[in-house]
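User: Is it possible to get a 3D structure for a protein together with its bound compound? The compound here is flavin-adenine dinucleotide. I've pasted both below.
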Amino acid sequence: MAPNLVVLGAGVSGLTTALLLARSGDYNITIIAKHMPGDYDIEYASPWAGANYLPVATPGTPSETYERTTWPELAHLAESLPEAGVHFQETVIYRRAKDVGSATGDWFAELIKEDAWFRDVVPNFRILPKSELPDGIDGGTAFTSVCFNTALYLPWLTSQCLKHGVIVRRGIVSHIAEAANLHHTGKRADLVVNCTGLASLRLGGVEDSAVYPARGQIVLVRNDPGVMASVSGTDDSSDEATYIMHRAAGGGCILGGCLQKHNWESQPDPNMAIRIMRRCIELCPKLVPEGKGIEALSIIRHGVGLRPMRKGGPRVAKEVISGVDVVHNYGHGGYGYQTSYGAAQAAERLVRETCGSSRPRL
Ligand code: FAD
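Assistant: Yes, that's possible. Here is the predicted structure of the complex:
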């Protein structure tokens, strides 16, 4: 009999982990989650993400491995699977010397390096000459990245799971061990994979005090600037940044943003929204017709998401909680898409180590 697994959580971490496990054909999997693709909720980070691939990991950390090993998977999606809603986008990253030490400057510290560790990972990495830098910018790089249309990608991941036999159900647990009783067979699961993101702070049996939110506010618009661009900081506040991400397949364009640590506020701040829109037009004037301002932005929605940050980085680890084998995969902060395949592969290895598979190997 194939081991029975419950994956708790249907964000990008839970769905990717479930998909890799299901593709192997070695497990009998149920996904249980309070929120599913299609929902927009402050407790559910994944739909709010841009989402693009802008590596921020410190070299030598597991996150670097996750980001490095995720890129080929994302390039494959963009090249070969248009139905996933991921496309290549040319990207420019601008650095301002005065942002060093600010919340956003620290966030961008690896991303803005001219000798960035990922320069051989992404295609077409180059250092921008001074002649290509806007006023007020001290340096910059450009490369080819990808951008997800999360409104297509999350349902696509779910469909891929269904195609590989995963059963997907709504459920809410207050303790991680309860999830073992929710396998669709009615039998107790052999292992639970914990992909609950920010909820791991309070989830019974996990209660990881290293987990905290970093609030991100965005404006989704119909305008198309033709490029993705980010700058390391702003003069408005040390926890505000400026970034533009154009989503695949009609997903609109994300204007951001901020990185407000320990801020749980779920509602968009209208003043910040105006600052975001102004700054994005300043950064990328092609967003609107020449001479126009924020009135020329066609707004789809304002949004707020909470990045599931974790002191010390993401947690991909195994432990036994109240007699239940658990593999954790959470704490992916502002980089859960760009680490998704690498982290899911690491979680899959831990699942195999813990409960193996009864399927006969050919
Ligand atoms: P979540 O998406 O939050 O999913 C958690 C799941 O667990 C949900 O299904 C929830 O219902 C379920 N759950 C929780 N508790 C329980 C419970 N007790 N019982 C049952 N179910 C439970 N990342 C990038 O890589 N690139 C980007 O460009 C990017 N941009 C971002 C921009 C913003 C504004 C934000 C907010 C985030 C951004 N991120 C980006 C980060 C990315 O969105 C997150 O790292 C990622 O979505 C985390 O996914 P997750 O599956 O771990 O958590």
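The first helix runs from residue 12 to 23. The domain at 4-355 is CATH 3.30.9.10 (D-Amino Acid Oxidase; Chain A, domain 2).
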